[in-house]
Amino acid sequence: MRNRVVAVLLLTLVFLGVVISKIDFEAVRVSLGGVRWLHMAPVVLLYLSTHIARSIRLQALFAQRLTLRDVFSINGVGFLAINTIPARLGELVRPYLLKEKHDVPLGASIAAILVERILDFAMLLLLLLSVSFLVDLPSHGIQVGGSEVDIVSLGQKLAGTFLALGIVGGGFAVLASQRVAAWLRGWRRMPGLASFGAGLVERFDEALRWLWRNPSKAVVAILGTVFVWGTTLVAVALVLSSFPEIAVDWRIVLVTWTFTLTGMTFIPTAGFFGVYEACCAGALMLQGVDEGPAMACAVVLHLGQFTYLAVVGLICLAAEGVSLRSAVSGSWGALEEER
After folding, report:
1. Are 277 and 284 in contact (CB under 8 A)?
2. Residues 119/157, Cβ–Cβ less than 8 Å
3. Is this prediction's pTM over 0.90?
4. For residue 324, what are the contacts with CB-CB under 8 A and spacing of at least 6?
5. Nearby residues of 164 by Cβ (< 8 Å), 6 or more positions away
6. SS3 for the chain, per residue?
């Protein structure tokens, strides 16, 4: 785990170094001087509505009854951890808090979050396909980490692969969960890990069957996903339109957020710093925006999202009565106990 953290921190430093070395600070300063800051004020409400929608979606994925306030608070802590702790070590914070605060089995919450991730990968793939079919982009890619990357093609392949694995894994879990669980429990080499895997397969099967028996919950989860990414696109549009140098239409919003989201998904640097700015500014420059406004917009967009998550996360930490460090260490301790 320590090696993984070090590797991610080094990757983050590399991306930050490349991005900082290419910034024309004077051009960025001039661009920031012309920003219509009040124009982007509604973005805070859009981010809040997105967070509520994420909480409603996760709430719908549990058979166990949880209040929206409880899920909202745990999501706040979880997304703070995901966005600040390197190597995605914060991914288990939500399952841990759900177990500690509301007695939700660890396997059940991990299974619900896996379904959540499948829905997000489906939306990412839809965005990537929309960019391919609806927007004419230059044949060359964008500069990411010093290399030219065709991020649409790469993102489609990776998102399609992960989505296919999720769908196949979900179908396999439903059709053969008992046999897979029995086989894992009979595995002698790593009995603790095998037993945990068997339990996770069974919980994933239960989560999918719960959605099948309760189609209204599945509809809520799907509509919640659409709402999350729809409001995010509107928020991105508001931030872009606050820069006088950027001529905003639906194409530039779609391409900018799709490129940025793809980079964040598949190159998870600490806090997404470096890769966020590289992909966001690269997407804007690919569409004819000058480097100064492109980088200024990328920084404002990222810091705005990060600040919102940090403020909400810290409020939710206080509400839950935990520290971020104890939540992260406790989550990995809980995983070890399960294994």
Report:
1. no
2. no
3. no
4. 77, 80, 81, 84, 85, 313, 317
5. none
6. CHHHHHHHHHHHHHHHHHHHHHCCHHHHHHHHHCCCHHHHCCHHHHHHHHHHHHHHHHHHCCCCCCCHHHHHHHHHHHHHHHHHCHHHCCCCHHHHHHHHHHCCCHHHHHHHHHHHHHHHHHHHHHHHHHHHHHCCCCCCCEEECCEEECHHHHHHHHHHHHHHHHHHHHHHHHHHHHHHHHHHHCCCCCHHHHHHHHHHHHHHHHHHHHHHHCHHHHHHHHHHHHHHHHHHHHHHHHHHHCCCCCCCCHHHHHHHHHHHHHHHHHCCCHHHCCHHHHHHHHHHHHCCCCHHHHHHHHHHHHHHHHHHHHHHHHHHHHHHCCCHHHHHHHHHHHHHHHC
How far, in Å, are 155, 230, 284 from residue 251 at the CA level? 18, 14, 11
| CA angle, residues 122, 225, 159, in degrees to nearest 5 | 20
At 126-170, the pLDDT tens digits run: 888 888 777 776 655 555 545 555 666 666 667 667 767 766 666
